[in-house]
């Protein structure tokens, strides 16, 4: 995994655009990992009536497996107990696979004629696929072709379970995704987005979002008009937030690709995402699982100059409701919502009219206050402020008036050199605009001590920025004062 971060430099707008594009590409890699923490990339499934208090041992798993293979009766019961055990831990999956011919037996039940047994066998595969990488690959090699075939089954529960299992396999790694792509998985999944069964739609979208980590899969999805299907799902009402959430995760991957920007823009994705964001912000306790992909889609689209080049889209992102909504989410107790909100603002702030809108809507105090938050939040806040400050001295003076200096100074002591480098750039721009007043406030809040520690830093960029501030502002002001 490549490093996501790049040093901020207050340069021309062209340099800023290049930095923004590179930052987006590298951020997308880590955002995929972050997504896995919010919505697990692989998921087990529990029965409605199953009690998590009943724990199954490895010996019981082996005994159930042997009974499954030798007894003609009660196969549904044995499969239900096994699926419950598989959801309790990978050691129990290992115990099952250690029994000779256990997986071939499960596959024979999957391909049999008994519908209930077939569904339970698929459910077992779902939970096995949520285990280790080895477990997932075992399922992929033995069962993936059957699972893809049964996506066209007339049984909605079986479609749902097969799609869920394929989602787990796709979430495991590139090798599994490559295998599934070779077997035509995307062509089988996309039509399920139009299913009348919401569970089928959710599982299909879950599988597609994990497949969308692959460039080949994304291209195939777009060719199959997945964007139109997803946009339709964003219009659903009456408690369909879970369907919308899964659909948005697919869009987070598509919006991260500049080559699909026009397709997404023409389909009206930006407007749909904004409307959903406004609706979510009305709730006192917004649905975090919904808001996360909404903000990410929005941030990705703001990165793209083609999306932002149309008059309609510029008007959409000039709506005061957008800034009010982001401000609310940046005050949320869930830290990653703060981070996602800052990511959106950073990309909006690149455009001077939108930067002015941000300031007019009084978001500067919120952004500045987040310099005192957790590290990854501080980094995003500093980056956002650098994007705002690049628009000139007047805006830098506004940042200074909002008491940015006292909040920036502590970041100079951070162990993260990239955060320190950005903070130095921000200090330089503020001092360039506000001169003696900024230098005075900087000294009053202990900034000089921070600079002295960085003056001879081994990092050449940091030492150069530090000495530039000292020579052109601090020493100059001290000389005047004397």
From TrEMBL:
One function term, GO molecular function aspect: nuclear import signal receptor activity
UniProt entry tagged with the keyword Transport: yes
Region (Disordered): 1-34
Residue ranges of ARM repeats: 101-143, 184-226, 225-269
Sequence ranges of Basic and acidic residues compositional bias: 23-34
Cellular compartments per GO CC: cytoplasm
UniProt entry tagged with the keyword Protein transport: yes
GO biological process: protein import into nucleus
Stated family: Belongs to the importin alpha family.
Protein name per UniProt: Importin subunit alpha
Lineage, opening ranks: Eukaryota, Metazoa, Spiralia, Lophotrochozoa, Annelida
